[in-house]
Amino acid sequence: MKNKAISLLLFLLVLSLTPLAAQTMDPNRASLFKLSIIVGGAIITLAVIAGAYGQSKAISSACEGISRNPAAGQNIRGILIFGLVLIETLVIYALLITIIILMVKWGAY
User: What pTM value is reported for the model?
Assistant: First the structure.
């Protein structure tokens, strides 16, 4: 099962990078463009991983807190929703930064 997942990930990575081989660019701009794609992908990947981990820990802790003290369930639920909104905002900001990095015209500067 693990080999299948790694194979699928590698296939999707190669498939997503094939348009780069079809484009002709100035060699100086091409290296910056490739670097921007790598940096953009790394930023969004790390943000999604950190956001998913943070959300899972927050939900786990909230469920544990509610199970220990059911009377405080409403307060814990409200704080949980607020915390999840802040965590998701971080991921959205990372997406915006990635879009900005990918849309910069590297040869114009």
Answer: 0.61
Task: Tell whether 92 is covered by a domain.
Answer: yes
What's the N-to-C CA distance of the chain in angstroms?
47
Distance CA 4, CA 14 (A): 15
Residue 5 lies in a domain: no
Query: Which single residue is written with the structure tokens 């009377």?
Result: 71
Helix (H, G, I), strand (E, B) or coil at 25: coil
pLDDT, tens only, 27-53? 666 677 777 788 888 888 888 898 899
How far is it, in rounded angstroms, from Cα 40 to Cα 96? 10
Domains in the chain: how many in total? 1
Q: Using CA of residue 94, residue 98, residue 99, residue 103, what is the dihedral sign?
A: positive
Instruction: For residue 69, give the DSSP letter.
Output: -
Q: What is the CATH number of the domain that holds 43?
A: 1.20.20.10
